[in-house]
Every structure is written in structure tokens, then in C-alpha cells.
Amino acid sequence: MRSMEIDRRAFLRLLAACGLAPAALARAGGAPDLPLYLAARKRGDRYEAAVLDARGADRLVVPMPARGHSFAIDPARGRAVVFGRQAGFFAVAFELAGGAPPQALRPAEGRHFFGHGVYTPDGRILAATENDYGAGRGVLGLYDASPGGGYRRLGEFDCGGIGPHEVVLLRDGRTLCVANGGILTHPDYGKLELNLDAMQPSLAYVDAHSGELVERVQLPAGLERLSIRHLALDASGSVWFGCQYTGPAGDLPALVGRHRRGHAPELFAGPADTLRGMRNYVGSVAADAAGAVIATSSPVGGQVAYWDARSGRCLGTTALFDGCGVAPHRAGGFLLNSGRGALGHAGPGMPFRGMLEASPGLAWDNHFRRV
């Protein structure tokens, strides 16, 4: 715990330097192209959260003390929060236009971030997936995001499971869907999986006002080792999910699924070559701008697969070494990035078209988000 305290002090000094030296937030000149995108990255020896325009050019760069993961985004108020990668003991709130110094957030004692969060529609509450690692349970940490609230921690809701990862807000503006991965971890043991023989992954639907668990869905018997991790909503409001399999490598369970409230979850395997190419790992899920096509990335397998949101049919793949970040492109298809610095546009029947040259000093992290 001593090293975490040292990291925290260094982090606060870093943010203070940003407040004293606005040039530390590197903004390109001119009006940004809309939409904007968010991504975490490592550039040289620096960890950063970047706001990008539609051409992939930096509009804002926010420093981080360590590797970042994903974001909560409040587009109506032009702000976001980037979360540290699991086990994350930091988060940074910032304005997309860079008009104010970034602000550090800390989880409560005995909690750490899992890398994802979401704002309520009124912008008053930030909900973040967290690990209550002493009790071995997942929670949604609640933070005051109202004007003057300073992201003060207000409390928490139970997630109805272990290892909550991504959380999304449904179209009703009230219900949160949480991907409970089912894997028990503790920061003292890094990412060591402590309960592989007792996993219970689930989708949990939580009322954002009351914290009530309104629905909980588990996968069919025999798929307890299929950890549900990432989520996206299609045009109908159905929840698409991507999984990571912790069982024997020779098993090839379907990794991509869809859930409609009140129904059993559906799993889609796709062609045998596509399923093998995922290498039992989905790292990110996103819907295109119309909500008609779902992209699922596998950085382990070096491919992005596309799925018809209505039928669940696989529409094809894009090969991208260490490719994980996927976000909807305004012209159709998706923006993709990789841990080797590649960034480009691709989609079903659309070859990868690079927008930035891959750089040995640049590594994009797992998620790419459109504002």
C-alpha cells in the first residue's frame, strides 16, 4: 500500500502542474471536427488520455500516472472521466475543450476501479464499476458530478455479482446494465484469478435511482468460465456483450452474445475460422453509428469481427495485429486502433484504411470511444 500512496502523491503533483501550465494540455489549433473520440495510450514513456478529431488528430491530451482503460462521457456538458486500468486506483475528470485543469478521483478505501463508468443523463451522478476486494463483491461507486460536487464519493450500489467490468446506460435513461465478469481478484495478487472453479458471470440490470437489482441474467449451464466483460447497445436497445473464456484453450465457446430484457441471452459463434481467430478473447464491443452492425475486437487473435445486429450473422472480419479499440465512424463502419499505434477506418466489406502511421513509440489502449 505504501507504493500506491507514493503514486498518488506523484499523480497529484502532475495534475497540479497541469493547472499551473495550461500548455501541458496540448491542443491543436482551430475548431475541432465533430464527432470527437477518446482513447487512452502510451506515447514514449508517458501515459495519456487523448481527445481526437475525426481525422485522428489530437485536440486535447491529458496526462495520467499509469495505464488508462476506458471512459465515462457526458457529451451534453462536454466532459469525461478516464479510469485507470484494473486494478485502477486513479481516475481523471476533464473538460473535452480543456477549459479547466483536470481533477483527480480516488476510490474509497478497500475499493479499486475496473476501468469503466457512466454518467446519469442529468449529469449529476457518475457511476463507476469497482471491486470491494475485501468482501469479494462488485459495486458501482457513485460520485457527485453536479456543479460544485467535486466528484465527491456519495456511496455505492451492489452489482449483483463479482468482477463488474463495463457498465452502460439503457435507452430509458434509468437502468444500468453491468457486465459481471465473475472473476474474483485482489490487488495484492495482481490479476491472479482466485475463483475459476466458482465463477458466476452475469448481466445485472440496476436501477440508477434506487440501486435495486431489477434483472439478473446468467449464461446457460456449462458456460460458467465464460467471463462477460464488454457491452454495447444496438438500435433496438438490446445489449450486446463480449466474453473472455477462462477454460481450456482447446475449447471454443461462442464469445459474442445479445440480450433482450425478459428473454434468455443468445450467443453467436460465427464461422469456425472467425471463432478460432478470436482466441477465446473479446477485448471491446461497439455498435456502428446506426446501431445496425456490432464490432467485436480480439487483440489476442489480431482480428475485428462484425455482426448483423438483427440476425446475429457474422458479416466478416478485419485483420489488425493487437487491434482492440473500436468506435463508430461517421461515414459508416468503425475507427480501429491497436497496441502497435495503428489507427484507421474499416468495416464489413471495407478494407482497413490507415489514417495514422503505426509508430513504435505509440500504443493505444483497449478502448476507443466516440463522444
Report on this structure:
By secondary structure, the protein is mainly beta. It has a domain at 227-254 and 266-371: 7 Propeller (Methylamine Dehydrogenase, Chain H), CATH 2.130.10. The protein contains two helices and 28 strands. It has helices at residues 2-20, 272-277; strands spanning 37-43, 46-52, 58-64, 68-74, 79-84, 91-95, 103-105, 111-119, 125-132, 137-144, 152-158, 164-169, 175-180, 202-207, 213-218, 226-233, 239-245, 256-259, 266-268, 284-287, 293-298, 303-308, 314-319, 323-328, 334-338, 343-347, 350-356, 362-370. Strand 6 and strand 7 form a beta hairpin. The radius of gyration is 19 Å and the shape is globular.
Cα radius of gyration in angstroms = 19 Å
**Shape, principal axes of CA atoms:** globular
The whole-number mean of residue pLDDT values reads 91
The CATH architecture of one domain can be named as 7 Propeller
Low-pLDDT windows of residues: 1-6, 17-32
How are the strands of the largest sheet arranged? Answer: 3-2-1-28
| First-to-last CA distance | 35 Å
Residue share in β-strands: over 45%
Topology as a string of helices (H) and strands (E): HEEEEEEEEEEEEEEEEEEEHEEEEEEEEE
Q: What's the CATH first level of one domain?
A: Mainly Beta
CATH fold node name of one domain: Methylamine Dehydrogenase, Chain H
Class from helix and strand fractions:
mainly beta
- Strands, total number: 28
By DSSP (H or I, 4+ residues per run), the number of helices equals 2
Give the biggest sheet. Answer: 4 strands, antiparallel
Helix percentage range: under 10%
